[in-house]
Amino acid sequence: MTSARRISLITATMAALGLGGVALAQIEGNDRGVPPIDSSANYEVPDVAVDVSAKTAQEARNFGWRLAQRRAWKLLWARVNNQPVEAAPNLSDGTLDSIVAGISVGDEEIGAHRYIAHLGVLFDRGRSASLLGQAEAGVRSQPMLVIPVMWSGGAPQSFERRTEWQKAWARFRSGGSPIDYVRPVGNGLDPLLLNVAQTGRPGRGLWRNLLDQYGAADIVVPIVQLVRHYPGGPVLAHFTALHGPDGEVITRFDLTADDGDQLPRMLDQGVRRIDEAYSQALRDGRLHSDSSLVIEPVAVPDLPEEAVVEGAPAAALPNAASTFLLQVETPDDPTLVLTQSSLRAIPGVRSITTDSVALGGISVIRVAYDGDPQVFRTALATAGYSVQDTGGGLRISRPR
Questions:
Q1: Neighbours of 54 (CB within 10 A)
Q2: Are strands 394-397 and 155-157 parallel, antiparallel or unpaired?
Q3: What is the Cα–Cα distance from 58 to 37, expressed in whole angstroms?
Q4: Could you tell me which of 319, 119, 333 has the C-alpha nearest to residue 209?
């Protein structure tokens, strides 16, 4: 969904709630959003340690990069083929140069004759596939919506504010993973829809709408809880990887950073370990999707040819649908699901799309209807709704 459309949805939702431009200005002005830096189909082998010496600083650096490529290749081959590192074939430096897409520097120390660094090596997926063997194809997951949650100072956050945990997931190069991650940027509607409270809701109705909006089929919730005993001291991190709307635990582990400066590296390591856990769960068959998250298509019966009368108004033709924006009170998730079901059951309704969800407030539902607007109002009344014209749409409610 484009940023312009998301802003328009926020405007419609806030207008329905009577909050107006103040809330919209707050959303637009907040420091939110971390776009993923790389989702290309490159394999990454991060944090390769090298410590070499040579006659000059430049020679030492060149040799360090060569050594990093050799070590990274063996680690990649072992990971893809699920074999020990010692079994990896040796490749010439020329071959490695042809399949390496780039080298990222984590940190480096350059002396007169010595080079110490932690390097990340990127391998081109297409060029290295034949050298990795058939095992590299493997199984791939369905699109997984990622909602990273970080606990710090006793309070949890997902996309409400830009966090170090969100940045770590944005830095992660997901192209080489068998998990198809859908990583929201964190701006627009993301902070409203993908908040911490949503990760704990078991109701399937809202989850189905969110997954449909973000083009995903399932959910993963990686969680980190940071514990600092005193300012400037070590940082202990408790990691948990959850899957699905019911929060199935895939793995738990702890990592420690010496101080705050080492926090990004520790979080990057946590992301990689969680990805490995999700990947292993996929291979073991434990990362299967919940069938209750699948949106069943609504069958619209074809009208007989006799129903199409020459010269009839365009709205009465089967291919000409009118679009209505409906404002409806949704105090809870079951009410939203019931409203969606009742609207789908109205004859002539081609499709419904939930543009914005506000549990405990007013949600906005877009309905495509094959027929005259007045006929649609009558159909809503027949379904038990009272209908009010709001100027830009319809407000529907059931008698209390």
A1: 16
A2: unpaired
A3: 29
A4: 333
Distance CA(400)–CA(387), nearest Å, equals 14
Structural domains of the chain in order of their starting residue, each with its CATH number: 42-136 (3.10.28), 139-291 (3.40.50), 296-397 (3.30.70)
Residues 315-332, buried b or exposed e (16+ Cβ, 10 A)? beeeeebbebbbbbbbee
pLDDT tens-digit profile of 354-368? 777 777 777 888 888
Q: HEC states along 116-168? A: EEEEEEEEEHHHHHHHHCHHHCCCCCCEEEECCEEEECCEEECCCCCCHHHHH
161 and 6 Cβ atoms separated by less than 8 Å: no
Runs of H (alpha helix) within the chain = 3-17, 20-29, 57-81, 93-99, 125-132, 164-171, 190-193, 196-199, 204-214, 263-283, 333-344, 373-382
Bridge partners for 44 per DSSP:
122
DSSP state of 293: G
Tokens representing 357 are: 């969800």
Q: Read off the pLDDT of residues 94-113 as tens digits, 9 standing for 90 and up.
A: 888 888 878 888 888 988 98
State which amino acid sits at residue 259: D
Share of the chain above pLDDT 90, in %: 23
Any idea which residue has 């094959």 for tokens? Answer: 370
Distance linking the first and last C-alpha atoms of the chain: 36
CA 76 – CA 44 distance, rounded (Å): 8
Buried b (16+ CB within 10 A) or exposed e, 366-393: bbebbbeeebbbebbeeeebeeeeeeeb
